[in-house]
Structures are given as structure tokens and as C-alpha cells.
């Protein structure tokens, strides 16, 4: 179990760096969702199910939905699609 925990911790570091370096906002949100889900798995492994449920619901659920709504409102998702088509 220790090896699996170390792999998850390494994956968390990779996700954190990837969010910082991502140019596309949509990709950043998806990486953030992945980070929250992995963090939820880690909370389960250290036997904190209440924190795991909260992390999954708030971190990967509600926060990501709010980010998607914000992207839609500021029209970044539409602009990024147009940029991809023009390239």
C-alpha cells in the first residue's frame, strides 16, 4: 500500500505542476478535477472517509461546475474552440 500511496503523491505533484503550466483553461479545470479525485482516494487510504466525501463533492464536483460556468460566461470556451479551428 505504501508504493501505491507514493505513486498517488507523485501524481498529485505532476497534476499541480501541470495546472500551473497549462495554457488552455479547460485543460486546467480537468487537471484540477483529477487532482481532487486523487486527493479523495488518498483521504480514503488514510481512513478519513468524511474528508474523502467532502473532497470529492466540493473539490471535484461543485468547484469544477462553477469553473465551467465561469468559462462559459466569459466566453473562453467558445474563443478557444475558434482559435483551434483557425490554427
What does this structure look like?
By secondary structure, this protein is mostly helical. The chain contains four helices and no strands. The chain is flat and about 50 Å long. The mean pLDDT is 86.
Keyphrases for this structure?
87 residues, flat
Overall 3D form: flat
Give the CA-CA distance, first to last residue.
46 Å
Estimated share of beta-strand residues: under 5%
* Computed structural class: mainly alpha
Compute the CA-based radius of gyration: 15 Å
Number of helices: 4
Secondary structure layout:
Elements: H1 2-21, H2 25-45, H3 49-73, H4 76-86
Helix pairs in contact: 1-2, 2-3
Can I get a quick summary?
With 87 residues, this protein is an all-alpha fold. It is built from four helices and no strands.
